[in-house]
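Appendix B. One record, verbatim.
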Amino acid sequence: MEKRRTEKKTVRLIVLLLAVIGTLCAAASFPFFAENEEAAGRESARLLIPGGMAFGVRIETRGVIVVGITKTGRRSPAEEADIRVRDVIVAINGKEVNSADEVTDAVSNSGGAPLRFTVSRGGKTAVKILTPEKSAEGGYKAGIWIRDGTAGIGTVTFIDPSDGSFGGLGHGICDVDTGELVPLRTGTVTGVTIAGVKKGVKGIPGELKGYLTADEDGSLFSNTAVGVFGRLNEIPDAQPIEVADRNEVREGPAGILCTLDGSGIGSYDVTISSVDRSGSETKSFLITVTDSRLIGKTGGIVQGMSGSPVIQNGKLIGAVTHVLVSDPEKGYGIFIDRMLSET
């Protein structure tokens, strides 16, 4: 009996202590936790420097891209070997190849003997047996047109102030003939001099005209469907801003940053509409240029502006990706969180 009374007293004491602790938490600790949660929210908001500057890229491919199949005389060795346009040749007779010269040398030195071409197609690798044909000039040919690199101009979307990593374009760099993503082996970021603008008109997209400088401003690490990513040698002295989640993007006014000439980055008014939050790729929302200055200079969105950061309510919400050929004042944008998912 005494034991039961002791147990009841212990339970009442525990309940009383819990009640006192609860009262103290309500009076003091809860505000402390709330403030900490708010501070944690502020700390967790990612801050990035918005881009807008033009940059150049020089890419050397991983393997070589087949961009054409042809006959070398009476036959087409590549066609007979089931080598196709868009294939990527990654090795010959087990030896890795990354340049057009390496492929040419292997074929020229074959003496007409069959060669084992390792090709990548649709994410799968296979070996194709190609027997070169002796040409009228005496050399050996494979009957393929190949490419081992590319270069171009785009716009930086964001820079991470902590380490200089950056993203740009908002879409991948694709081969001009095959339309496939260029398989990146190495990439160099260069400076760009904008020499002029070809205005876009209905049915004919415009473009930024310029040339790559000899300056090496950084390295490119990856070429993906939603942008290119790398690291810059120098971090701009600019104010970072918050990154918006796609759920914060609203139809209505916004702005884009881009470089059209030697005067530097300009800010221009646009309107956001047709927001598709379920979309995961490069056409997440529609952009309509409303700034008469930009329309006067470019006709709207032009090639080379891909990657131009889109800012709404002081936050980075995405990047320009495409122009509508039928109406150059309109184009598409990608959510910034989609780009960041690939970094």
